[in-house]
Amino acid sequence: MSARDSNFTQFEIQASEDKGKTVDIREGIASFSYYENILSNFITASVSVIESGTRTGQDRGGVTEGLLNYLPVRGGEEVRMKAKDSFGNVIDFSKYELYVNTVSVPNADATVSSIEFGLVSKEYFSNEKTRVVKRYEGKINETVKKILDEILKTKHYKSENLEDVSNAYAFIGNDRKPFYTCSWLGTKSIPAKDYGKTAGFLFYQTQDGFCFKSVDGLLKGTSKGKYRFTDSTATLPKGEKKILSYDINKNIDVQTDMMLGVYHNRTIYFDPYAFRVDVKTFDITKQKNISHSGKPSGFNFVNKQFTDTPTRLMSTILDVGTLPIGKDSTAQLEYWKSDKGKTNDKVIERQVQSIMRYNQLFTIRASITVEGDFSLRAGDVIECIFPSRKGLGTAPQKDKSTSEKYTIATLCHYITPERCLTRLGLVRDSFAK
Question: What is the pTM of this model?
């Protein structure tokens, strides 16, 4: 199967200076990889192109020259591409373009040489050109939207992917980069539906645009599909797709989790206004309202004799009265008078909760390879069915401890002239019961 006929319907690079000059590189593509990651603020891609140096520049008197000098490619060129998988799903960057970030020629002296282009989203460059400067206040998700609109000047997001946050926060940008600021705000965010029970948001980009979602929101998502591994050639149940290969890493490290205070910690909060100290203890075994991977399963894995006392001690100064909300000094003063003990940063309600959830998210890790499926996104939830004993018998039993819903943490679509595959890095915060 050729890349032109079966996968790519468009793949062209446009010259930076001459907007009317483009080169269609579909015939020369050796491989294309596209990446998403819930821990990355931007999407990336790479494409390897084979060329023999026989392109004719007709506008230059028929001079034979390579792609790099014909356009020329010097970095920052627009790349428009569109491809379809075997299920009919489309990956489309024909209107929201990618841009050339890196160019390398591994073997420039060969008769047939290859060129490797590293591609990124436009906001990757915008993040380097802009800074968050002014003062912001209000609900954190609304502030993230303002940064996208006013600083990065992008509309590449869907409103439903900017999850509602319960707490407001006032701050001054202090010349921080937009990506850093949005990720930093994520650590201070509390989901609207679980105030005080859990915290922590992630800011990342997918094919659909930027996302600002809570850890719990990712774990509780509705399944986008069911995938099964089987050695048998029998037809899969209706609606299921085949896992071609997989690897499961039960990533439990009790000592590290104890050091980070995931299970039990104590925090000292100092109020500089009232000159008062409060001590709060967090014990995960007593948090009955914390769900695991979207289910109210409770705490059920790690010997409780190692979680009965605090293993991490923390201290912090409460943000009291420094940046009260209000459009002017009069409004800010009235807001502060209404509740003088009200904190700007809800650190008591979010600090230990976010520490716990960020670290728990990657407790169970799995990697699977499936036939190319462009409908999937980083942050989606899928259900996987793994055998209890791989390769034994024609109908192996399901492994009940690992066959559950997982969140897609990393995603790679890999296309060559022969195959189209999707590699998924999956995470889960606990074993199934």
Answer: 0.89
